[in-house]
Write a structure and sequence with these properties.
Elements: H1 2-22, H2 32-37, E1 74-76, E2 84-86
Antiparallel strand pairs: 1-2
Length: 98
């Protein structure tokens, strides 16, 4: 009985973790933090007049701030806690990978 309860508790914890990960929202470009950092979901949309420091070829995929598992199109970013960013995106917080 105790073993069954332990297994059920472990399953509930794992299921809860998966559900939270699946429910992580994508960063909206209109989110105040996104607006502040000039986030776009596609680096080709960067206004280079507004962001002259933009470097061609830079995007979230090759940014040091991007976290998570390679291969996912939307991943966590240390600049936007609790939100997922497009790997094709860009913001002025872009930092080249080391």
């Amino acid at each position: 009985m105790l073993k069954d309860l332990s297994l059920a508790a472990a399953a509930a914890v794992l299921t809860g973790r998966r559900a939270r990960g699946a429910d992580t929202p994508r960063l909206d470009v209109k989110d105040p933090a996104a607006v502040e950092l000039g986030y776009v979901e596609n680096a080709a949309q960067v206004d280079v007049k507004k962001y002259p420091d933009y470097t061609a070829g830079s995007n979230c995929e090759n940014c040091l701030q991007l976290q998570g598992t390679s291969g996912n199109n939307y991943r966590p970013c240390s600049l936007f806690p609790g939100k997922l960013v497009s790997v094709s995106g860009w913001c002025k917080g872009w930092t080249p990978e080391m």
